[in-house]
Amino acid sequence: MKVQDVMTSNVKACRPETNLAAAATVMWEEDIGVLPVVTDEGKVVGMITDRDIAIAVGTRGCPAAGIAVSEVITGKVYSGHLHDDIHSALKTMRHWKARRLPVVNDDGLLQGILCLNDLVLRAEEKKGGRAPELSYEDAMSTMKAICEHRPLTAAAQA
Asked: How many helices, marked H, and strands, marked E, lie in the chain?
């Protein structure tokens, strides 16, 4: 099973210069919690979550319309490829604790997004001794790895 068989393909995105209010509006209207951030050409340069927006607005003392997405995103992007085996994408998600993985084509252009929801909804039980391509165990072990708390840093422990 390939990533393209499981991912959500009609994904919304925003650009680095988009303000947080506009990004939040798209999230609200589409009932989603993340937007890939793409260049004019469609290359993924980051991800912005509803949590990122809430923390930025809560800590910066200025309205969401006055903060650009580029000021909030980290710039580190871990992505999957359309033709990757789903288990390769799960490994990436587990390693980087990524709840969502943008999916790109050979040119690095956004094609979709692989979310935990996609995994859970496509996972299957083992039937008659036949292991499914995406099992409940695959989905659950990925969720557990992502949800596991990271060790506290020295600053957080103080």
From this structure: 6, 5
